Amino acid sequence: MSNAIINQIEAGQLKADLPEVVVGDTVDVHVRIIEGDKERVQVFTGVVIARAGSGLTETITVRRIVANQGVERVFPLHSPRVAKIEIVRHGKARRSKLYFLRDRVGKARRLPDRTRGLKHAAKTKDILKREAEIARAEAGDAETEAVQEAPEASEE
Questions:
Q1: Could you give the angle at the alpha carbon of 33 between the alpha carbons of 32 and 34, nearest 5°?
Q2: Which domain, by its residues, includes 96?
Q3: Which of 26, 106, 126, 136 has the fewest CB atoms within 10 Å, measured from its CB?
């Protein structure tokens, strides 16, 4: 009985707009920082090396390199402090925990892109931007055609 009540309360606090984050992905985690009475958003960019928990207690561990030092942060996915999570790149990983990346240095630290490899990662991002622009342009053309067709129908 009490378990059902707890699950019901937790279900109301889960975020619905989270992207599907997989181990190996490079993500931008937008974190709300409160300093005094001011609030700002700080972006933490890094590779997801672990995912743990489930439900409201689900967390991801993100690792990045700052001034030749590895920095890892654990983010609760459903925390109100996490404003937004954006996936920058999909990395190919064959393990659920990428702790071996802690020992890697330089280019050996990189993961291949899940779609086509490291060389094509940048090209894929550019292609996606172009496709989005074309889709927006086509949507704008469709709207203008619909507006032009509507007065013709009313004249008849």
A1: 120
A2: 2-114
A3: 106
Low-confidence stretches of the chain (pLDDT beneath 50): none
58 burial level (CB within 10 Å; 0-12, 13-18, 19+)? middle
Residue 72 and residue 49 share a domain? yes
Q: What's the domain count of the chain?
A: 2
End-to-end CA distance of the chain: 66
Same domain, yes or no, for 56 and 102? yes
91 close to 24: Cβ distance less than 8 angstroms: yes
User: Does the model's pTM come out above 0.90?
Assistant: no
Rg of the Cα atoms in the chain: 22
Q: By the 8 A CB rule, do 51 and 23 touch?
A: yes
Q: Rounded to whole angstroms, how far apart are CA atoms 142 and 156?
A: 22
In the beta sheet, which residues pair with residue 80?
none
